[in-house]
Amino acid sequence: MSTEPLLKVDGLTKYYGSRLGCADVSFELWPGEVLAIVGESGSGKTTLLNSLSATLEPTSGQTLYQMRDGQWRNIYELSEAERRFLVRTDWGFVHQNPADGLRMTVSAGANVGERLMAVGDRHYGHIRETALDWLGRVEIAADRIDDQPRSFSGGMRQRLQIARNLVTGPRLVFMDEPTGGLDVSVQARLLDLLRGLVGELGLAAIVVTHDLAVARLLSHRMMVMKDGHVIEAGLTDRVLDDPREPYTQLLVSSILQV
Amino acid sequence: MVTALSVRNLAKTFTMHLRDGVILPVVDNVDFEVNAGECVVLGGPSGAGKSSILKMVYGNYGVDAGSIVIQHHGAPVDLATADPRTVLTLRRDSIGYVSQFLRTVPRVSALDVVAEPLVIRGVDKSEAQGRARELLARLNLPERLWSLPPATFSGGEQQRVNIARGFITDHPVLLLDEPTASLDATNRAVVVAMIAEKKQAGVALLGIFHDEDVRSQVADRIVDVTVFAPRIAA
């Protein structure tokens, strides 16, 4: 197991004008670790995720990331070119709506291949072969490689988005409600796929979800957010089986049993 | 004799915020130890806190006071105050748990459910599956079920998958929460034999067994949980 974290977050706070997004969030994330951020709509989960991934600039606090060369960098002080390179190669971002993370009018193969070209791959045969391999890993039939994601179902689009993100071998993947909006049988397939890939590739991931079952299945650790604050954090099964805070108890007791 | 697990002055209460903050004391001053090679059974009626103690020892429940010291890679670690990463390494390498009910994952076969604890520890997948096959065969789980996800299995079938998963590693501490509750006599006898082998191998076992016959066969000592009943404050 690695002896150093990948990400160190310290006092991260984001205000939209006078309105609070998230307040004073601090944690460390280690390689291979999956962290779930749970809470209801408006609790600050997505603000936090967007701040962590440098999509938003926080009002105060810092996020240190250990680059591939071992250097620690505050991600808000990277140049635009450095940030873009990180986002295209070492990081992945899986959006809730696949249309936000895919190019809907280019082929599935090109969607995957584009990220490879961003890391300098120029060999058409190799790019296509790698794209085919990744489509297979996310269970998309090889004969769909030249089709546009517009013609794909919601579940297929989401799997394509995952392939596009993972093809460059990122070390950290951000996911915003990756199974939201999918029907349950499609969700189960996607979750199983994600769980397998995360374990196999040793990825670190930060997953925002309001679905506690998703958190239980995918994450090692979780943070519960309410009104912009992290109110409870710990090992996923500890938080879910022995919730301490009133709001966490409410969340856990609100799960419908099948 | 080596003390593999030492529980000292453990206390646990639940605060039910959704019930006007009602406080439910569960146990207080829990104090016992388990040595390598012995099976200690938690005794007492339902509701005495036996399962809660097991869950605290596995890190599933937080504790309010006390310590849970486990030998981990040759050094003592207090699980009661350990951070989540440490608890995960303890579970990977030092402490196993056969829960009462299997939590199934869609699409993952029984064989892979059983093999997973070895795979997590870096054992080659086909080797881990080989070990899983041996255990499932020994527990008489029909071979046609091995490639199926256990969600649709009967209670006894799920329990055998769970037992195989818990016994596949060589963790020095193993927790057993009623592992024989839904098993027939033949399979109960298999589990009793497997427990005896773990003891021989120097594993420290801590378990709950309601079946008196099984309990008398496996227990070296019984810890009466009712003595840890909290004194109810007015």
Q: What this model shows, in words?
A:
The complex is a heterodimer of chains A (258) and B (234). In chain A, the strands form two sheets. In chain A, strands 6-7-8-3-9-10 form a six-stranded mixed β-sheet, with helices on both faces. Chain A has ten helices and ten strands. The model of chain A has no long low-confidence stretch (mean pLDDT 92). In chain A, β7 (172-176), α7 (184-201) and β8 form a beta-alpha-beta unit. In chain A, 38% of the residues lie in helices and 24% in strands. In chain A, α4 crosses α5, α4 packs parallel to α6 (154-166) and α6 packs parallel to α7. Chain A is α/β, with parallel strands linked by helices and 258 residues long. Chain B has 234 residues and is an alpha/beta fold. Chain B contains seven helices and nine strands, in the order βββαββαβαααβαβαβ. Chain B has helices at residues 50-58, 84-93, 110-120, 125-138, 155-167, 185-200, 212-218; strands at 3-16, 22-35, 39-43, 65-72, 75-78, 95-98, 173-177, 204-208, 221-224. In chain B, the strands form two sheets. Chain B has a five-stranded parallel β-sheet with strand order 6-7-8-3-9, sandwiched between helices. A four-stranded antiparallel β-sheet of chain B has the order 2-1-4-5, covered by helices on one side. In chain B, a hairpin with a 2-residue loop joins β4 and β5. In chain B, α3 packs across α4 (125-138) and α3 runs parallel beside α5 (155-167). Chain B is globular. At the A-B interface, α7, α9 and α10 of A face β1 and α2 of B.
